User: Fold this.
Amino acid sequence: MFGLKINKILPYAICFVFFLAYAALSVVRHLHYGSFGFDLGLTDQVVWEYSQFHAPITTIDHIPFISNLLVHVELIYILLAPFYWIYNNVITFILLQAFFATASGIPVFLLAKKHGLNKFICYALLVSYLMFYGVQNALWFDVHSTVFGTSFLSWFIYFLDAGYLWPSLTAFFLTIISKENYAAMTLLISFVYLVYRREKRQLLFIGLSILYLFLIFGIYYPHFGGYRFQSQQGLFGGLNLLDFINTKDKLQVIGYTFAWTGLLSFLQPVFLIPLIGNLASYFILGREVSTAQGLFLQYRIELTPLLFLATVYGIKRIKKLNSVWTGFYLLFCVIIIQYQLHLPLSYLTKGYFWHEPASAKNINTIISDIPANASVVAQDNIIPHVSHRINIFTLWPDKKTFLSDSPCGKTVCDWFRWASNPQYLIVDTGPDWDIRHLLANREDYISGLKNLEKAKIISKFKQKGNAVLYRIQKQI
Assistant:
């Protein structure tokens, strides 16, 4: 009786432990000013605006004052916004992401159990899923709609496989409204199940997926400015299949993805179609989006349920593999790659990760002096801490040419630019930050601020260490 209760509780306990780990990882990073305006500040502003019944207008983007819906169709944020009525803080958003991501391990466990895999394999698959490099990198690097979409996609796969129509429909709609490209994955998954099982119900999801993709890419984007992430030749222009494997980054993604489950996903090739399709959407269709081609950032989390679907069916196909040794093999692969890539969960064991930078304390002191409704331009890693306001802008390092009255004594000076007419500027030039946080090297950044002061564009209002809150005297 006791053993039976343990078996029922253990999968949820494992997910809860990973939730605590990922929550600590992402919250501590944020509190130590390691998060960024792109993407946390931007998405936080959008969700906060929804919670205030405002239009999702982003002022943080490099093209300010546009609807976020023109960049990505992420309707899931409307459903998440009410959580800000409970606790109006970006940490709410961070914890929601960690919860949904780790809870999505449950359908993977249930899928493996449903197909009669060895109990230890089921647990090994669950741990492997929750530690997948795409999951770690996505939860480490701010908050993204892809995490929520992937979480719902995992449930969609399980309900579809189990034949639960209404739960699968619910998970399907939550998946496709998470981000504009997710209907392509539900389409490919439904197609694979149609081929594998010959069930007519799959036609429903195929049809709905095609309809949604047509509405988004055939009607919506063409009439509202176009899809920002397509190539210059258009979404399907200039296609070259060799783009799938033409860089080291892409080959690394392919290699580490399949190696994560020890190549067991190859044993049932038909179930690899959605995974290959997802990679192709980035490597071929989205080849010009340089940040989406490698191992890191949030994009590879989309592979997680697709890889583990193929792995479950691959193990099921070879009866001799359905043993405890396969479970150990799966965990061995995870440990080796975790060690080799030094993925974010490893940071929890490092003393430096838990140590709060002195600069963070200084910024916290300065932020408290910004009026609640004031418009602010801020350093990139400070933005997520002040993004619950209508007008919050990114501080962009720049150069400016002076024909006379040069503040730096040269023709070209380090300078900045920002949108609109903010009232305050907040920065921190401490040694804890680098080009990722400042968007420029530290020397040029400090030089630019001095030039703004000399030109009487800004004046110091309050300072704590290297953290400074300026009043903006003149706009640039």
Observations:
- The chain has two domains: 2-351, 358-472.
- The CA atoms of residues 101 and 151 lie 5 Å apart.
